[in-house]
Amino acid sequence: MIEVEGLTQVFGHKTAVDDVSFTVRQGAVTGLLGPNGAGKSTTMRMIVGLDRPVKGVVRVNGGDFRRAERPLHELGALLDPAALHPGRSGRAHLRALALTNGIPSSRVDEVLRLTGMVEPSSRRVGTYSLGMRQRLGIAGALLGDPQVLVLDEPVNGLDPDGVHWVRELMKSLAAMGRTVLVSSHLMSEMALTADHLVVMGRGRLITQGPVTEVIARATQSDVLVRTPQAEELTAALGTIGGSTRRAPDGALLVTNATAEQIGRLAASGSIVLFELTPQQGSLEDAFLALTKDDQEYAAGTVAGPHGPTTGSEQDGARR
Ligand SMILES: Nc1ncnc2c1ncn2[C@@H]1O[C@H](COP(=O)(O)OP(=O)(O)OP(=O)(O)O)[C@@H](O)[C@H]1O
């Protein structure tokens, strides 16, 4: 378990993380989401003890991870794969890590096999692709077979096979009772992987909770209805405060009424229904709704050959 209480980090005049509190439970994958610059990496760096918060407390399995006797058994982290020594081979990098942490070198071979890195492990890290660095970083995080994993953008640069592998790995670690905190910008991937979410924006906590709850809270849940008696159904729904609009394919999208209410209304009014399907918003819809006021770097749209391109990370839609 990871407990974060009132975590705050300041860089010069910038409050990168502002009084953030959340809990990452064991036995689940928790996704840490937020727009660029939201403070995710800074939060993760404080959790793993790389940076000291100006305020707040982090507890890993109830204690201070920086005082752990066998840190790699307690917590494994993937934070910055670019920070690997380019002149060392992948195997040498892991061996050095293992040696300094009292881990047998047989475990190096195990994690190399687990991450599909046996073949390139004798090559210098400087020759690795981004995806290979990610795999080596994950191998390092797994080296101590830790109870807690903190992975910053682990699927960045991985091919579809690698993305699938990381997803299954995280799920299997959670199923074994481990604590997994992972950040990603890939909402479709997070929707498939995470059980819980922590959403940040501009350094602050926006929301946290089970994925389905976060989506339900942030998106409108319509019910899709197909009926040859759309007008009658719309009128009937009006009596209970429901409203309808047309989907592009002609179906009705009903707001402010549950599938059960619609079914009952239709039955009592002898209205024929061909389909009655609750629609759930996507995680991407929820993310965009939750963070719409917290986009530090909002891009503009390309207006076409005669219009200007507005907004960019450089010209700063910073508010
Ligand atoms: N060492 C640092 N010195 C100064 N500012 C920093 C430093 N590290 C982070 N920041 C700033 O703190 C804010 C949060 O950055 P952080 O990298 O934690 O965000 P993030 O959510 O991980 O973003 P991204 O999704 O783009 O990786 C940003 O405005 C960033 O520029």
From TrEMBL:
Residues 2-227 form the ABC transporter domain. Keywords: ATP-binding, Nucleotide-binding, Transport. It holds the Pfam family ABC_tran. The keyword Nucleotide-binding applies. One of its GO terms (molecular function) is ATP binding. Residues 298-319 are annotated as: Disordered. It comes from the Bacteria. Gene3D superfamilies: P-loop containing nucleotide triphosphate hydrolases. InterPro entries: AAA+_ATPase (IPR003593), ABC_transporter-like_ATP-bd (IPR003439), ABC_transporter-like_CS (IPR017871), P-loop_NTPase (IPR027417). PANTHER family: ABC TRANSPORTER, ATP-BINDING PROTEIN. Belongs to the ABC transporter superfamily. This is ATP-binding cassette domain-containing protein. It comes from Agromyces salentinus.
